[in-house]
């Protein structure tokens, strides 16, 4: 029968177990010991001080924490760091090549695709993942496939402009039935 052990008053609580993991973060192999409940986002921000990835909602609703795991975009607040053992993680800090910005970073600047900038690292990492997926063919598909990345400042037109430019796809969706385009006057 299991006996309930009552800690002595004043006794230090038992240390939580930590688990060894190895991650390749922005090209650098990183060995850590971490508690099982630590999210990948908290590992990056609180333990490794890679604060480019932002914590907006901490529950998978805003996309501010988007990073790339083996080239695929994920919400880093929704995964435990221990689950990513052995994976290749890329954050916004790992996209530039030395002093040369990633084309998406440069395009966001050129298009003025941010205001407060809080969503921007997640938007850019998500756009890199979108390009890796190769599914988006026009601006509408960019909007749809990046709908998990919320911008409270409403910089969506500029974000879509930046992403479509780098992807070299149409920034405006052609339509043959102009009567169904809300807000336009058919000609
Ligand atoms: S902080 Fe991860 S989705 Fe909002
Ligand atoms: S630029 Fe402010 S939330 Fe997107």
Structure description:
The chain has 187 residues and is an alpha+beta fold. The protein has 2 domains: 18-94, Ubiquitin-like (UB roll) (Roll); 103-167, [2Fe-2S]-binding domain (DNA polymerase, domain 1, Orthogonal Bundle), CATH 1.10.150. The chain is built from 5 helices and 5 strands, in the order E-E-H-E-E-E-H-H-H-H. It has helices at residues 40-47, 103-110, 120-133, 139-145, 156-167, and strands at residues 18-25, 28-35, 66-69, 72-75, 88-90. A 5-stranded mixed beta sheet has the order 2-1-5-3-4, with helices on one face. Strand 1 (18-25) and strand 2 (28-35) form a beta hairpin. It is elongated. The relative contact order is 0.13. Residues 1-5 and 177-187 have low confidence and may be disordered. The structure holds FE2/S2 (inorganic) cluster (FES) (2 copies). One FE2/S2 (inorganic) cluster (FES) is lined by residues 55-58, 60-65, 75, 77.
């Amino acid at each position: 029968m299991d006996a309930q052990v009552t800690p002595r008053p004043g006794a230090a609580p038992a240390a939580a177990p930590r688990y060894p993991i190895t991650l390749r973060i922005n090209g650098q192999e990183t060995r850590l010991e971490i508690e099982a409940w630590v999210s990948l986002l908290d590992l990056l921000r609180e333990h490794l001080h890679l604060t480019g990835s932002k914590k907006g909602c901490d529950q998978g609703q805003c996309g501010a924490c988007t990073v790339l795991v083996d080239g695929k975009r994920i919400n880093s607040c929704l995964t435990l760091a221990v689950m990513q053992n052995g994976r290749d993680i890329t954050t916004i800090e790992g996209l530039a090549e030395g002093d040369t910005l990633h084309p998406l970073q440069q395009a966001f600047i050129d298009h003025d695709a941010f205001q407060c900038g809080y969503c921007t690292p997640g938007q850019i990492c998500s756009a890199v993942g979108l390009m890796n997926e190769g599914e988006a063919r026009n601006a509408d598909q960019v909007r749809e496939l990046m709908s998990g990345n919320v911008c409270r400042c409403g910089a969506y037109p500029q974000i879509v402009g930046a992403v479509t430019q780098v992807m070299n796809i149409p920034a405006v969706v052609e339509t043959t039935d102009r009567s169904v385009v809300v807000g336009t006057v058919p000609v």
